[in-house]
Amino acid sequence: MLRSRFLVLVLVAVTYASPASGQVRQATPEDLGAEVGADKLIEVASPMLADISLGGGEKKKPLGDPGVNGRTLYDTKPYVCDKARVPRITVIKRANRKGGFDLEVTPVLMTEWYRQDVNLTLAILSEGKLIRRKDWKEMTIGNDNSAANKMGVWAAGASTTKQPVATFAFGPGEFEGLFGEGKAPTLRLIMEIVDTKEED
After folding, report:
1. Longest dimension (CA), the chain
2. Backbone phi, then psi, for 46, in 5-degree steps?
3. Can you list the pairs that 130-133 forms with residues at least 24 positions away whose Cβ atoms lie under 8 Å?
4. Residue 176, CB-side half-sphere exposure with 13 Å CA sphere
5. Of 24, 81, 90, 139, whose Cβ has the fewest other Cβ atoms within 10 Å?
């Protein structure tokens, strides 16, 4: 009887100590209930170029419409260029003193690197032709979550997310003239990586 109990205990111990082959594995996105690729960024080589229409769509009116004063664009959100990203671009339309409109364009530039220098271009195109352009040379962006930024101290070379502003002025009727039957201007963003520094 004692021997039988001992054998039962040994069998139970071996069963729990040796899981069946193929039963233990890393959980997949499907196992976790996540949509495959939903949070995966698309790598783009430098310089990254994005052309975004300022026209309308199924759920939005064109910026040329009198009732539209601005829009937040997320077209660049899924893309990353050497850890640098532009998750959103805000475009605001304001009447100016000359009777026309100013178009204020503000991209958000962030990176996972401690410090990264980029060349940035914002431009307005109409039917492929350059209308307005603004350039920034060697703008420094950085990781908001770096050790230096988390501690709230200044450190040589440390930087954070940047939001440069480009204001494009248009005379009376000029901006509205960019919109018409089947046409709308394009906002072009070009981001070129110049230099990168990892956190020390």
Report:
1. 103
2. -80, 140
3. 131/168, 131/178, 131/185, 132/103, 132/168
4. 10
5. 24
Residues of the chain with pLDDT under 70: 1-23, 25-39, 146-158, 199-200
**Rounded CA separation 147/70 (Å):** 36
Half-sphere exposure of 89 (CA within 13 A, CB side): 26
Nearest to 133 by CA among 146, 123, 145: 123
pTM, two decimals, is 0.75
One-letter amino acid at 106 equals: T
Separation between Cα atoms, residue 132 and residue 128, nearest integer Å: 12
Looking at residue 181, its pLDDT comes to 82
| pLDDT per position as a tens digit, 23-75 | 676 566 666 654 444 468 899 999 999 999 999 877 788 888 888 899 999 99
Rounded distance between C-alpha atoms, residue 64 and residue 173, angstroms: 10
Q: Which residues are bridge partners to 80 per DSSP?
A: 43, 85
User: Is residue 103 a contact partner of residue 187, using CB atoms and an 8 Å limit?
Assistant: no
| pLDDT for the residue numbered 39 | 64
- SS3 state of residue 192: strand
Give kind and range of the element (H or E) at residue 132.
strand 129-142
